[in-house]
Amino acid sequence: MADAVPILIGYVDADRRYRFVNRAYETWFGVRREDIEGRSLLEVMGADAYERVRDHVDGALEGQSLTFEGEVPYQAAGLRHVEAKYVPDVAPDGAVLGYYVLVTDISARKRAEAELARLLVRERRRALMLDLGRQLREESEVAAIADRACAVLAAQLGAQRAGYAEVDLAGVSTQIVGEWGGEGVQPLVGPLFVLDDFGPAMSDDLRAGVQVVIDDVREDTRTRHSLDAYVALDIRAFVAVPLVKAGRLVSYLFVCQECARTWGVDEVAFVGDVAELIWAASGRARADAALRQAEETERLLIREVDHRAKNVLAVVQSLVQLTPFVDKRQYVTALSGRIGSLARSHSLLSTTRWTGAGLRALLEQELEAYSVEHESRVVLDGPPVLIRAEAAQSLGLVVHELATNASKYGALSAPGGVLEVRWTWEAGRLVIDWREGGGPTTIAPARRGFGSTLIQNAGKQLGAQVSHDWRAEGLHCRIELSRGALPHAGGGERSAAMTGAPPDGGLQDQRVLVVEDEALVAMELARVLALAGAQVVGPAGDVEEALELIESSLIDRAVLDVNLGGRMVTPVAKALAERAIPFVYLTGYQEPGLDDGPVLHKPAAPEALVSALAGRRVERV
Q1: Distance between CA atoms of 49 and 35, rounded to whole angstroms?
Q2: Per-residue pLDDT, 527
Q3: d(CA 443, CA 420)
Q4: How distant is the alpha carbon of residue 186 from its chain centre?
Q5: Residue 542 three-state SS
Q6: Nearest-angstrom CA–CA distance, 67 and 410
Q7: For residues 462 and 395, what is the distance between their CA atoms, to the nearest angstrom?
Q8: Which residue among 71, 387, 536, 614 has the highest number of C-beta atoms inside a 10 angstrom radius?
Q9: Taking every annotated instance into account, which residue ranges of this chain make up the domain PAS (predicted)?
Q10: Cα separation of 548 and 507, whole Å?
Q11: How far is CA 237 from the centre of its chain?
């Protein structure tokens, strides 16, 4: 009967020697039972296996019935997961003569149980992923998505830290945008890190899209030469799963442990699944944000188009009603000319997306009819000037009325007549000189006509002073604009921050702090501001340097880059605001999310920068 069952059945005497074993012993150990019976446990089992069961043997020989499980490395039988029962053989007088042995090999059962447990863990994680996906759909910010996913990941794996990082276009620097860390764990969100500082071989694997699994940074060849970087962050073991899109490393998800750890295959796979989930949710959030921004832009454009259209219709309606009617021909000619002037101004503005119109271009359009046939009769001379969008329409009407009067009664009404239009800057005001000569003798009109009234009213809208000097040789009209005009770049080199040549005289004697971490951009800003009359303070390349300059220097205003080496410029803006020092942001971010100061986007036109900085001019005390 003993030989018929596939388990070990034996009897061990008080001297720890086998007295009987069944045939299963021959199968396990590959020897005849005769070679086992009479030999000691140590001789048959081997030293390692005997040490594993020694305490149980002691207990059985003391009269205890024992049942236990464990992995036992039998000599010649290999590692077996067994369930063993030791039953003592007790004589009538109470003496223990030995014990009976029943050992069942449960290795297959344990493997099945382990596989079942693994499958259950996998199913639980699959359900967890579904739930996490639903949670992430509720988040609208990438940082919030990453934070929530990292918290779930770290809890599931029992990790010290989990984080999600994005990589720059060059694949050199990385910034952690979301993370979860246990109590006392140093937060890493915000600063820029250099990938190669953590081991060039490790970072090369990430760029190649290879999952990096490190059980111990001190032992792995990819990390052991960069231990200082890991020690500083209290990282001993980690998994990093890269996300490579369109052939470029864009981000990666990592989990870390403060002690050495062997990462399971399923654990690494779970990190990869969460990484893809974060990427998908982040893409959806960015797309939603872009859609909201596009919808808002569309609403603004529609509102602006509606506003401008109504303004134009209102102006045209006023011209229709106010243009004097003498006869049909006169009325149609005068009205058509004025409406044409409006149309030409709008055409100029449309080519610059309503940022403004060049003064020379505006004059050339209004005087084109008189310049083509007699080019030498019209002379235009002056520096580049940008007329702001809100002023271009009114100034165009003024020039149109002056040109119409000149063609009817002045220099352009007779052969040999000459019109000179020259402009310059005087004490920060744009002065336009309109001089006619060589035409009929000019006398001041006895009464003011509609054209003269239109010139005066349009001039008031411009904030301009318009004066007429009716000289015998020709009209001299002087127009002084206090607003609506800016020095304008006519050409020149381009830089990463600005386009066009710099303006001059816009910030005379103002001390302007430049905060910019890109050296070439800072040099260009300093050049532009100096040519605009400013005294440049700095440039400062980081927050600390900028704060020191604010404390130690006299500053009237400032221009601030938003991101300084991975750190926001907020402390500098706050320090300036506390001192009531006006400042302008100059940034490459399309949507910087700032509302405490004017924002210009790189590359910005010099005149736009000078205008924004000079918008609230202050006098130093």
Answers
A1: 18
A2: 81
A3: 19
A4: 23
A5: coil
A6: 123
A7: 7
A8: 387
A9: 1-64
A10: 23
A11: 29
User: What token pair was written down for 422?
Assistant: 């020259």
**Amino acid in position 72:** V
Q: Which domains does the chain have, with CATH numbers?
A: 8-111 (3.30.450.20), 139-288 (3.30.450.40), 323-487 (3.30.565.10), 511-614 (3.40.50.2300)
617 pLDDT tier (thresholds 50, 70, 90): very low
Query: Exposed e or buried b for every residue in 370-399, given b needs 16+ CB within 10 A?
Result: bbeeeeebbeeebbbbbbbbebbbbbbbbb
Determine whether 223 is exposed, middle or buried from the number of CB atoms within 10 Å of its CB (0-12, 13-18, 19+): buried
Rg (CA), the chain: 44
CB atoms within 10 A of CB 454: 20
Residue 162 phi, psi (nearest 5): -140, 140
Task: Determine phi and psi for 493, rounding to 5 degrees.
Answer: -75, 160
What is the tens place of the pLDDT at every residue in 199-245? 999 999 999 999 999 999 999 999 989 999 999 999 999 999 999 98
Cα 99 to Cα 294: distance, rounded to the nearest angstrom: 84
Residue 606: is it exposed, middle or buried by C-beta count within 10 angstroms (0-12/13-18/19+)?
buried
pTM of the model as a whole: 0.43
φ and ψ at residue 20, rounded to 5 degrees? -155, 140
Interior CA angle at 261 toward 260 and 265, to 5°?
A: 155
The pairing of strands 583-587 and 599-601 is parallel
Q: Residue 415, preceding bond cis, omega within 30 degrees? A: no
Bridge partners for 418 per DSSP: 437
pLDDT digits (tens, 9 = 90+) for 243-267: 998 888 999 999 999 999 999 888 8
Q: Within 10 Å of residue 68's Cβ, how many Cβ atoms?
A: 15
pLDDT of residue 590: 52
Give bridge partners of residue 354 from the DSSP assignment.
none
> Contact at 8 Å (CB) between 596 and 610?
no
| 5: three-class secondary structure by DSSP | coil
Cα gap 312→271, rounded to integer Å: 60
Tell me which residue has tokens 């140093």: 186
Q: Do 337 and 365 contact (CB within 8 A), yes or no?
A: no
Two structure tokens written together for 483: 């607003």
DSSP 478-539: EEEESSSEEE---S----SSB-SPPP-STTTT-EEEEE-SSHHHHHHHHHHHHHTTPEEEEE
Residue 39's pLDDT is 93
SS (HEC) of 115-156: HHHHHHHHHHHHHHHHHHHHHHCCCCCHHHHHHHHHHHHHHH
